[in-house]
Amino acid sequence: MPILQIRQAIRDAMKEEMERDERVFLMGEEVGYYNGAYKCSEGLLDHFGPKRVIDTPITETGFAGIGIGAAMCGLRPIVEFMTFNFSAVAFDQILNNAAKLRHMTHGQFGVPMVFRGPNAAAHMLGSTHSQAFEHFYAHIPGLKVIAIATPYDAKGLLKTAIRDENPVLFLESELMYSVKGEVPEEEYLIPFGQADIKRPGDAVTVITWGQGVPVALKAAELAAAEDLSCEVIDLRSIRPMDEAAIIASVKKTNRAVVVYHGWPQGGVGCDIVARIQELAFDDLDAPVLRVCYEDLPMPYAENLENLILPSPERALAAIRRVAYKR
Amino acid sequence: MTQSEAAPDAASDSTVDAAYEAKLRADYDGQSREDVLRDYREMLRIRRFEEAAARAYTRGKISGFLHLYIGQEAIAIATQQAMEPGDRVVSTYRTHGFAIALGSDPKACAAELFGKAAGLVGGVGGSMHFFDKERGLWGGYAIVGNHIPVAAGHAFASQYTGDGRVTLCFMGDGAVGIGPVHEGMTMAGIMKLPIVFVVENNQYSMGTPLKRTLPVEDITARAAGYGFASDRFHVTSVQETRRRLGEAVERARKEGRPTLLELITYRFRGHSMSDPAKYRQKEEVERWRLNDPLERTLMALKTIYQVPEQELDAIDETIVAEMDAAYDFADKAPAPAPEARFENVMAEGPYYGDSATTRPAGVE
C-alpha cells in the first residue's frame, strides 16, 4: 500500500473529487501559483487551471462568503484557510450564513461546502496563531466538524466532506502534514460520526482528536510501560460525535481522560465530560479528567508554550490519576 | 377610459407649482398611461403592504424587528423591470418591497411576518429573512453587509457555469463602512463578476445621518478603487431608475463589469417600528415627501394623464382589499407544527441534536 504524507492524502482527495465532479473547486490564499502555504494543493493549479484552483486576495470574509454564495448556486467549493486562526475573520460568514442558510430559507438553499486548513497551536507562533477552533464551530447546529490525524483518515474523510450536503469544517494540523501512513490506491470514503480506536486497551479510555492524537498515543505508550492499558479513541468526527463509541469504551474501562488542543473552559472537552457523566455515571470509577491547554493565551517563548500545551507527560499524569496510581 | 375622457378637474385640487409640474412632465415624457398606472399600482401595493404591517405590529400581531420600505418602493419596482428571469436580488432586512415587487404572494409574506407555517420561509425567518428563490429573491440578510460576499459568490457561480445571470446586491448607506462590503467588492472587482451593487441611501444609518457615517459623501467615489463603473442619482421615478439600473445590469451581463450605484432615497418611517425618528425635523420629512416617487407618480397620473379620481380610488381600494385579505389570511393561518423546529437544520432530514443527553424526550 502506498505510504503518503497527510498533505499528499489531502491533495489526492481534492484531486480525485475535482476530477469526479466539475462543480468542485478550490479557493484560498496561495492555493494556486504558490501550491499551498503547506503544499496541500501542490500541482492542482497545473492540473486543473485557474478556473478551478483560485488564488484570492487576503480576504477571509470575502472568499468564505464567495464560497457560500457559490454553494447556494449548486457548486461544491473547498475554501482553504491558511490557518483556522484566520477563520476568525470569517466567523460571521460561517456562523450566520453557512450554518444558517438552509434553516432560514426553509430549505430553499443548502450550503454544500468544505472549509479546511490547519488548526490549533503549531510551534512558537504566539497567541493569535495558536488557537483551536473546533470549540467554536462544534457549538453551532448546522455545521459538521472533522479533525484528522492520519493520512488514511485525511483522505477518506475529506472525500466524504466534499460530497456532504452540509457545510463541513475540516481541521488539519500544521505540525502533522508530514505524518506518513498507508493510503489505499482504490477509492474509499470514511463516514462521519464514526470514531476510530487508534489503540485498544481496557484500563483507561483516552478520548482525543486531531493534534491530540499523537499526544494521547505517546501517553498510552508510556502508560503501557507501567502496566496501564489505555484505549485511545480518535473521534475524527467532532460534530456529529460518536457518542456510542465513547460510552462503550467507558463502560469497559470505567475511567476516561480527554486529551485535546484548546482551552479548558467551555468547548468540546467539557461537552464530552458532560455526555459521559450523564450516560455512564454508574460505570465511572473516577472523575473524568481533561488534558488540554492551560487557561491562558499562548506565549511565543518555547519554554512557556511547552508548559501550556497538552503533553504526553501531562496526559500520563491524568491517566495515572483516574487509575488511582499515585 | 381614454385620456380625453378623464375628469377635467383631475388636477385642479393639486397644489403643485409650475416648476414642479415642468419637471414632472419631463420625467414622464413618452411614457404611456398604462405603464405609469402599472408603476403606480405596483408601488402602491408595497406601500399598502407595509402600512398594514405597521398596523399589525401595533396590534401585537408581529414581533421582533420590522423595517419598512415606505418611500423606497420605486427601487424595487424598477429592479423587477430591469431584471431578466433567473437574475437574482440579494437584499437586506428591509426586503418586503422586493418580495412584493418580484411577485411573492402577499399572503405568504404577511404569514411570514406573523410567524406562521404558510410564511415565505415557514415562519422561521420573520421580517428580516424573506427568501423566494423561485421569484429571484435570494434574501433576506440581517447582519449588516454580510451578504455582499455571498452575492459575489452567486455572481461567481454565474461566471463559473456561464449561466448568463446577473446578481443585484442591495445594501443601505449604513452598510458601506463594514468590512465584508470591502472584501466582497474587492473580490468582485478582481474576478470581474457579473454583479450590480446598489446602495439604497435613505439618509440614515438607523438614527445616524450620513455626515456622521461617511468620510466622503459620495459613496460611488469608492467604485474606482474596485475597478467598478458607477452611477449616482436621486430616485424620483420608476422609469429613470429602471433605465439606469438596466444599464448596470447589461454591463454586468455583457462585459462582466460590476457597477456601484448609489440611489438617493428616503424612508418615511423610522429605522424599525421601535424608532420614532426623533432625530429629524418634520420639515425635512415634508421636503422629501415632495420627491416621494409614489406621490410624484400619483401627481403625474392626475395632472399629465388626467386619470380621474374615481379610477385612482378604485386602484387603491383593490390593493387595500388585497393586502387586508393577506393579513387576514396570516392572522388565521396556523402556527408551525412543533416538529417544524427540527427541519432544515441539516440536509439529511429532521435533526434532533447531536447527543442522547440533549435530544427532546421520545426521540432516539
Automatic annotation (TrEMBL), chain A:
Enzyme Commission (EC) number: 1.2.4.1
UniProt keyword Magnesium present: no
Listed InterPro entries: THDP-binding, Transketo_C/PFOR_II, Transketolase-like_Pyr-bd, Transketolase_C
Listed cofactors: thiamine diphosphate
Gene Ontology molecular functions: pyruvate dehydrogenase (acetyl-transferring) activity
Enzyme category, top tier: oxidoreductase
Domain of life, per lineage: Bacteria
Alphabetic keyword roster: Oxidoreductase, Pyruvate, Thiamine pyrophosphate
Domain Transketolase-like pyrimidine-binding: 4-179
Record carries keyword Oxidoreductase: yes
PANTHER family linked to this entry: PYRUVATE DEHYDROGENASE E1 COMPONENT BETA SUBUNIT, PYRUVATE DEHYDROGENASE E1 COMPONENT SUBUNIT BETA
The protein's name in its UniProt record: Pyruvate dehydrogenase complex E1 component subunit beta
Species in which this protein is naturally found: Nannocystis punicea
Taxonomic lineage of the native organism: Bacteria, Pseudomonadati, Myxococcota, Polyangia, Nannocystales
UniProtKB/TrEMBL annotation, chain B:
InterPro entries (UniProt xref): DH_E1, PDH_E1_Alpha_Subunit, THDP-binding
Coiled-coil zones: none
Keywords, comma-separated and alphabetical: Oxidoreductase, Thiamine pyrophosphate
Residue ranges annotated for the Dehydrogenase E1 component domain, each copy included: 42-339
A Pfam family per the record: E1_dh
Cofactor(s) needed for function: thiamine diphosphate
Protein name: Thiamine pyrophosphate-dependent enzyme
Source organism, top-level taxon: Bacteria
